[in-house]
Amino acid sequence: MTTRVLIVDDSATMRALLSRLLGSEPDIEVIGTAADAMEARGMIRELNPDVVTLDIEMPGMNGLEFLDKIMRLRPMPVVIVSGVTKRNCETTIRALELGAVDCYAKPDGSVNALLENDGGDLARMVRSAGRIGRWRAPEALQQQDRVQRQTIAVSTVNGVGTRLIAIGASTGGVEALHHLLPAFPENCPPTLIVQHISAAFAPAMADRLNQRCAATVQLAEPGIPLQEGHIYIAGGNERHMVVSGTEKLVTRAVPGDLVSGHRPSIDALFESVAKALGPAAVGILLTGMGQDGARGLLAMRKAGGRTIAQDEATSTVYGMPRAAADIGAAEKILPLPRIAERALAGARA
């Protein structure tokens, strides 16, 4: 199966470079390039690409404005291609919240640096995006644009016995976390998140979520004690984030091979949580491609923990949650707006 790609970038040099990177792949066809949103809009109508790569910084209508129009009028898989600067990272996270599939970090330096350092990453992102099929914004989030923003009442947390919440997400996860985490109260149990995202953009994701949440959102640091009211996001792609300890819980960064195709892996986090906390933990598996997290969620359920998977209607990609449902790993399968209350409540009914 060939993935047909439209490249949108205001730089002629970058358009040529991206065309070279992607066009050299036997299963990817670059069907066109556009220098701005107006040109891209006409080419999308005419060529009907499987995937669009989109630059953020463009003259006229910028990438965010164009992406918003795509997601409202003609939803389709979009991979953001962005430079790694503080401003670009923040804007890229906003693009993921709007529904972009993934983000490709353009390395600093010369054109040759990009060619030498790519390592096939862009092609892999485009290939994965193409496998999604026709992109759609999650139905329930379209219908419930004003998702409940109030935090869950503190009284639902007290006395639960939940010492930790572990969350895994992939494609569409930044958008899902944007809806889920603002409902967590300032005294929520320590919460650990593995979101499949480039390490270059993880700090900006943590900063943006921290601005929106009552709890403190930060990148996880190895060895720090886990505190109530804190949400920790795995920040790198070289080590797995796991939990250890009994009375005093800490995160550890563990080197190792890819697990379920990823590092950090959701499975690695969930399995460590099952071992360390047993019934005193809650596992949540959100939208994403593949199967990472399904096996670990099952381990948590077998250890007595409560386990939740996002339902199909509110998932951007119902891959990982489906895998969990298929093997009986999810105690509950819920729409995104109901997950926070369930995770923070003590009742199992």
From TrEMBL:
PROSITE patterns: CHEB, RESPONSE_REGULATORY. The modification 4-aspartylphosphate is found at D55. It is found in: Cytoplasm. CDD domains: CheB_Rec (cd16432), REC_CheB-like (cd17541). It catalyses: [protein]-L-glutamate 5-O-methyl ester + H2O = L-glutamyl-[protein] + methanol + H(+); L-glutaminyl-[protein] + H2O = L-glutamyl-[protein] + NH4(+). Belongs to the CheB family. This is Protein-glutamate methylesterase/protein-glutamine glutaminase.
